[in-house]
Amino acid sequence: MVKMTHKSVLSFSSYCSYSSRRGMPFLHSTPLVALFHSQSSNPTKSGETHLKNGTSKPRVSNVEDALKVFDEMLQRRPLPSVVRFTHVLAPLVKLKHYPTVLSLNSQMLLSGIRPNHYTLNITINCYCRLNRMDYALSVLSHFFKLGLQPDVATLNTLIHGFVLQNRVADAARLFRKIVVGGYCQPNAITFSTLIKGFCAIRNNTAAIQLLGKMEANGCQPNIITFNTIINSLGKDTLVDEAKNLFSEMVGRGIAPDLVTYNSLIQGVCNLGQWKEATRLLYEMASQGIFPNVFTFSILADAFCKDGMVVQAKSVVQIMIQRGIEPDTVSYNSLMDGHCLRGEMDKAKQVFDLMVTKGSLVDVQSCSILINGYCKQKKIDKAYNIFKEMPLRGLVPNTVTYTTLIDGFCKAGRLQEAEKLFSEMQECGQLPNIRTYNVILDGLCNNQQLSEAIEFLREIEGSKLKPDVVTYTIVIEGLCNAGEVQSAKDLFCGLSPKGVQPNVRTYTIMINGLCKGGLLVEAEEMLREMEQKGCSPNGCTYNTIIRGYINNNDTSRATSLIEEMTERGFSRDASTMELIVDLLSKDTVDPVLLAWLKDKV
Fold first, then answer.
1. First CA to last CA across the chain, in angstroms?
2. pTM of this structure
3. What is the DSSP string of 463-531?
4. Distance between CA atoms of 481 and 473, rounded to whole angstroms?
5. Number of Cβ atoms within 10 Å of the Cβ of 211
6. Which residues contact 201 (CB under 8 A, 6 or more apart)?
7. What's the confidence (pLDDT) of residue 66?
8. Does residue 409 contact residue 438 with C-beta atoms inside 8 Å?
9. 44-62: per-residue pLDDT in tens?
10. What pLDDT sits at residue 272?
């Protein structure tokens, strides 16, 4: 439950006191303010002019204007009304100078200026934008202390703040508390903001339910509300649901726009439904809605992900013919398609084309090319692209570093990987769990198991908690090294840690037990995984079947082959190779021979 705290707004001044007008040297020394200053021919004159006119709003276009006007207003007697001060604060919010707004607000309070609804909402908005929801919520107490009632703008601002931080559950709780308490009536913006939050966390069911409640509360959903949900459904490949909502929207008399069609096209493309994508393109054109660069980028990206690079190139050519300049996203998709096919020369040609067109190359462009080179084991070429990034004014991000570290690890160049890992942190790029997993995998695959175990303990002691992939990597490393008991101990400790083994974890553990000749335990684990809601797949069955064959128990192997077939799985190449090998021996196992005769 979201707590309504009761801290004083004045106590927040310490949070932004560094930016008070008389004690914020950074406001006069930063390049940003220098830029504002250079764009204002005479900020002082502007401030004075508008102060003389007691009825007009002071025109504030930059920080220096605002600070000058604000200081002069504080010197006036009697003090101007709170409304006049908010005319200074509001433009600063639009300029995103949130700490400065909070500091000026504190000075207003210290000068005895009583805040109004608008001032308090501005304060809440600033705290939300600074990710300080605790302070934002505490401002609510001042509404009641001043005899004011939070309005729908207050509610919308707080809900938006929670959504910005991905705290959608908190946003929903606040929504219920405010509405049930009768503090204010939600409007279309309230519902749309919360719907956007649910869609952001892929909770489409909650978003659709909330859409249904809008009309019951006297709010009519608009095109933006419908587009938000349709887009989310499309991204989750729930195309039928997206189409149903599309039909409902049209039935309500709301005409679809380009965003609507782009969302549907992306959904059908993600499923490889090219005919449906074509139909949607014709339908939108018949309604006078024509594709934009984003539409073409969706098509190019989808074609590339399906390995249809020729078709993706055609899309880019059509864009150019229609006078639509392909953007970074379009070229990145094309480059990624070539990388997926191992066509690195062609991928580099696209990259070079982007370079010639100016500032099209971004961090993702470099990361895609680096990843492509790493997959082809051309690590030096990948590293060269990485080293060129600062020369292009680009800062490698966590994905870039992780990709290159993975390349070094897979090439057995662990020292370079470790050096890059250290450099990454020194440059302020925080490693994520994938970065740690990549290094763990490198250590295990290069027979540095003791270092891997030590590194795992370091991860467990960090803020980043290991996931099932982390533990699966180490379990596989232990099994490959023949340390099956250590692997089993680590496996058995997963559930108490709150980590649930997945089908890959079980399969690796079963394989380790089979290699150790512990076939009874391996089959017990096969049964256990199903009991715990993790169904074995074809790889799991083939693994244990090979284990029985290698341990000369063809009777149990054939029984499991039957079970596997009944479940719709097939023998893989490795299993078939073992069976063929058994049949080619001078003496064929009678159990296997009987089983084969029964199948003919």
1. 66
2. 0.66
3. SS---HHHHHHHHHHHHHTT-HHHHHHHHHTTGGGT----HHHHHHHHHHHHHTT-HHHHHHHHHHHHH
4. 12
5. 20
6. 166, 168
7. 76
8. yes
9. 333 333 444 445 666 667 7
10. 85
